[in-house]
């Protein structure tokens, strides 16, 4: 028995099967009424995110703190711009991450703010791997 839509909207955890998400692809799901981006990052995206000097970031956070250990290829972030709450577009901008067209904030492939008016990184929701191919958000 699955919870009904009202229960899910109120914050019940959701499970997401990662199997159909190809490398380099993003999907958007909704949890607690918020868009959640799940990115299957390429090796190049991971390496670029790990090489960024923390001193160059407005909201310094290492890539390793934004992903689960052993699952570096998966990035899970709340897709709401930290500037004024717009929805950024995945795989846009100068950093192969997320671009908010409303006011120009640009996030990298780790969801960290790199330029623009946003004051903070895209938040990482509470989630856990229940298997190598499935996550539970919430």
Word description of this protein:
10% of the residues lie in helices and 31% in strands. Strand 6 and strand 7 form a beta hairpin. The protein has a single domain, classed as Rieske [2Fe-2S] iron-sulphur domain (Rieske Iron-sulfur Protein, 3-layer Sandwich). The model has no long low-confidence stretch (mean pLDDT 94). The protein has 138 residues and is mainly β. It is built from two helices and ten strands. It has a four-stranded antiparallel sheet, with no helix packed on it. The protein is globular, with a radius of gyration of 15 Å.
SSE blueprint and pairings:
Blueprint: H1 5-9, E1 14-17, E2 26-31, E3 34-40, H2 43-51, E4 74-78, E5 89-92, E6 97-99, E7 106-107, E8 113-115, E9 127-131, E10 134-137
Antiparallel strand pairs: 1-10, 2-3, 3-4, 5-6, 6-7, 7-8, 9-10
Give the SSE string: HEEEHEEEEEEE
Q: Mean pLDDT across all residues, rounded?
A: 94
How many angstroms separate the termini?
A: 18 Å
Q: How many helices in DSSP terms?
A: 2
Helical percentage: 10-25%
Question: What would you say about this model in short?
Answer:
The chain is mainly β. The chain has helices at 5-9, 43-51, and strands spanning 14-17, 26-31, 34-40, 74-78, 89-92, 97-99, 106-107, 113-115, 127-131, 134-137. The chain has a 4-stranded antiparallel sheet with strand order 5-6-7-8, with no helix packed on it. Strands 1-10-9 form a 3-stranded antiparallel sheet, with no helix packed on it. Strands 2-3-4 form a 3-stranded antiparallel sheet, with no helix packed on it.
